[in-house]
Amino acid sequence: MGMNVSRQVDLTENEYLQRFVGKTHVPAYDDDFWNNFLQYHINLPTNSEEQLSLDSRLETLCQSFISHNLHTGNFGSLINVFLLKVSELLTLSDTESNVHIWHAFNALFIIRCLVKYMIETGSEYQLLQHFEALPVQAADSDETPSDGTAAGTSTAIPIDMRAVEETKAAVAKLVDGSKFETFLEALVNIIVVIPVKEFTYHLHLEAVNCMIILLSVSLFSQQTMEKSTIYRTIYRCQHANTLMSALLHFLSRMSQAPQTMFGFGTGGSFVFDIAESLWSILTFARKQPDILTAHDLPTAFREHYPLANQSLLLILILTNHHATKDNPYRISLFGCSDSQDSPKEDPATFKIDFSSLYNTLCRIVTIDQATLLLYLLLYRNQRFQKYVMAQQNLQQLVIPILQTLYNAPDSTSHHIYMSLIVLLILSEDDNFNKSVHQIMLKNITWYTERSISEISLGGLLILVVIRTIQYNMLKMRDKYLHTNCLAALANMSGQFQSLHPYVAQRLVSLFETLAKKHARLDQQLKQPNDPNGEPDISIPIGCGLTSEDMLQDLSVLEEVLRMVLEILNSCLSHQLVYCPNLVYTLLYKRNVFEAFRSHSAFQDIIQNIDMVVGFFSSRLQRVQEQRGELGVSEVLEVISKGASQWSSDRLRKFPDLKFKYVEEDAPEEFFIPYVWTLVCKAGCVHFSSETIKGVSAEIVC
Q1: Residue 9: which domain range?
Q2: Is residue 410 domain-resident?
Q3: Number of domains observed in the structure of the chain
Q4: CA separation for the pair 194, 206 (Å, rounded)
Q5: What is the DSSP string of 434-451?
Q6: Where does the secretion signal sit in this chain (predicted)?
Q7: Confidence check: pLDDT of 170 > 50
Q8: Are 143 and 77 in contact (CB under 8 A)?
Q9: What does each C-alpha distance from 187 to 7, 79, 193, 235, 314 come to in angstroms?
Q10: Which residues share a beta bridge with 383?
Q11: Were both Cys, which of 183, 436, 520, 542 would link to 536 (CB 3.0–4.6 Å)?
Q12: Which residues pair with 210 in a beta bridge?
């Protein structure tokens, strides 16, 4: 304190820290102590190693604090000092508030460290006890000097240790959360009232971090959050709309972290000059270079845009807890509207520039937590979904999602799943399904299976989803992943247009691959002990897979095969004239359907495919008899002419393929562990994984 806190500083030797955690009460009016105590500069921990280092250096001090604070009430004094600093900030000019912001940040950082320690090592009730604890001799006063000592004079009030038991009883009566509620209101005021500027950036960040720490009580407690005083206080906050609005604006604007904190330069001097302060504000507002082009996007986002990152994580925490109950934060997020909309629109919880929010999400959608927020907005906020569907540059949103799926081995199964759900929600809109085939892309360098000079966005989407299905068959074997992949393709199939030859090949090859897998599995069931049977490398025979398991796999496989056939049939029924390359591929690969023509689960739909193949095959045969052998371009010419004379009325009618994503019951069981996993792995705050109890530890850690 009164120094730079580096990794080498021995914090236990600091006289101010020793007094704060010691046996004597330090009143809030002791300006001399608090001004010295809060006059330090620290670089915030940026990773788990740095957090662990800080925690280990603070542990002895924290233990001393726990031992003495219920009798000294020094934590309450610190809270009061912090509350005073915040209330004064709201009335001061920028120049006057510099030192107050610095001190308020330092006070809040100490509070955050102590709260984190108490949450990780104790109970919520014990934490609230420390919030409300009063000094033994000051319990019946308002911390005013009783001996005429002037405020500002350094005063240490000795504690009468004989009154300990009486104090414990008094403290127990006082644990009603009132002081915590006042503290929470101060955090909210920092976030929603004080404007974000260069010298306030880290104060806002610390306020957001402190809210995340408070909510982390759910990680370290086995009690339900309905019984949590902290959760009840946060979720009955009257400022949920303004808080959610501020957090979403922090994300949308994506202000880059300033290179210095509170005006500290390399020399450690503090900026007081008004001209320098004004210049720092102006330079902070200028357009920042796009650091997010870095290869490790999550790390770049966390390190260079920490306020946006932490605000995003706090939004996810607030909206996913109490998901099935009256949650004011969910209502707020799902009810917001575009600030550019007409005032005549239905009332909104708050307004935000959807254009800015959309562009930000496009930039960071490959990050796990951004994908989850996009899912929530698309699925729950009809205004935002409508806005997204109307965009002309959908490739900016869709391509990064496809890259996430393409690089599936580098992503978590949850991220892959949410990316697919986003595509499924998008595919529910007919305009989306039509427009993706009108957006042409060139030189997609990250797609390395085959060099494609030009392809539609819809074609690329089909390729990546098919690749995801095949990856799932080999690696994940997740039935729900298959279902969602195929549901997205099915929704799009009635609008397939101008399919690239390679896309058509991959569609039919998907059926061919599944058909071979079906044949092998069927053979293994009929002759399980045949030594000459070709083993299916994707089915671990001999690794505990029973006949019942194989029958279940066969049933799932037949469902998938049926879906692929329905997708092909839907395209032929609605868009045959616009898909000559698909007809060409079906003619070339007609034999792959041979084994299923007599299968009761497939014969009705294969009759349609056979009818199309037979129609164009007979036309090609007649032309060949006249011209001789035909080249690819000539075959496509015959198909195009034949398509103009083809009538889909010849085909058997099937219901249109329309799948709609519906969130399962008890979504909290999936989303809460998922969100806290993201907080632990992608956030700026790092927790002790050894004492996590409340959320599935194997997921979080």
Answers
A1: 3-137+174-267+291-354+668-682
A2: no
A3: 1
A4: 13
A5: HHTTT-EEE--TT--SS-
A6: none
A7: no
A8: yes
A9: 28, 11, 10, 14, 13
A10: none
A11: 520
A12: none
CA-only gyration radius of the chain, Å: 32
Name the residue with tokens 């400022």.
239
**Model confidence at 283, in pLDDT bands (50, 70, 90)?**
very low
Quick check: helix, strand or coil at residue 570? helix
User: What does the DSSP 8-state code read for residue 476?
Assistant: I
**Tens of pLDDT along 20-76?**
999 999 999 999 999 999 988 887 887 778 888 888 888 999 999 999 999 999 999
- Sign of the Cα torsion 88, 90, 92, 94 reads positive
The answer to whether 465 and 421 are in contact (CB under 8 A) is no
Pick the range with the lowest mean pLDDT from 100-104, 133-137, 482-486, 516-520: 133-137
Whole-angstrom distance, CA of residue 237 vs CA of residue 243: 9
Contact assessment for residue 391 and residue 286, using Cβ atoms and an 8 Å cutoff: no
C-alpha distances in Å from residue 543, one per residue of 525, 537, 538, 540: 16, 12, 12, 5
Q: Dihedrals φ, ψ of 27, to 5°?
A: -70, 155
Residue 463 lies in a domain: no
Which value, to the nearest 10 degrees, does the dihedral of the CA atoms of residues 147, 149, 150, 155 take?
A: -130
Q: Tokens 């690089």 appear where? A: 407
Beta pairing partners, 79: none
Q: What backbone torsions phi and psi does residue 315 show, to the nearest 5 degrees?
A: -60, -45
Which residues sit opposite 25 in a β-bridge? 157
**Cα–Cα separations (whole angstroms), residue 127 to 158, 230, 454:** 24, 10, 61
Structural domain includes residue 187: yes
* CA distances to 187, 215, 641, 694 from 190, in Å: 5, 18, 69, 29
- Helix ranges (H only) for 321-429 are 328-335, 354-364, 368-380, 382-389, 395-406, 413-427
Asked if 191 and 243 touch (Cβ cutoff 8 Å), the reply is: yes
Q: The tokens 């990794």 sit on which residue?
A: 7
Alpha-helical runs (H) found in 240-305: 240-253, 274-285, 297-304
Nearest Cα to 682, choosing from 247, 218, 284, 371? 371
- ∠ CA 462-468-469, rounded to 5°: 90
Length of the chain measured in residues: 701
Q: Is 151 within the bounds of a domain?
A: no
Asked whether 310 and 208 are in contact (CB, 8 A), the reply is yes
> In degrees, to the nearest 5, what angle opens at C-alpha 389 toward C-alphas 384 and 391?
100
Q: Which element (helix H / strand E) includes 456?
A: strand 454-456
Q: Which amino acid is at 29?
A: Y
Q: How far apart are alpha carbons 55 and 20 in whole angstroms?
A: 17
pLDDT tens digits, residue range 440-452?
A: 999 899 999 999 9
| Nearest alpha carbon to residue 686 among 43, 50, 7 | 50
Element (H, E) at 367: none
Judged by phi (left if over 0) then psi (alpha if -120 to 50, else beta), residue 542 lies in left
What is the average pLDDT value for the chain, to the nearest integer? Answer: 83
What's the rounded Cα separation, in Å, for the pair 427 and 492? 6
Residue 597: HSE in the Cβ half-sphere, 13 Å Cα cutoff: 11
* Mean pLDDT value across residues 229-256: 94
3-class DSSP assignment, residue 168: helix
What one-letter code names the amino acid at 17? Answer: L
Give 664 or 384, the one with higher predicted confidence. 384
Residue 109 identity: F
* Residue recorded with tokens 């989850």: 372
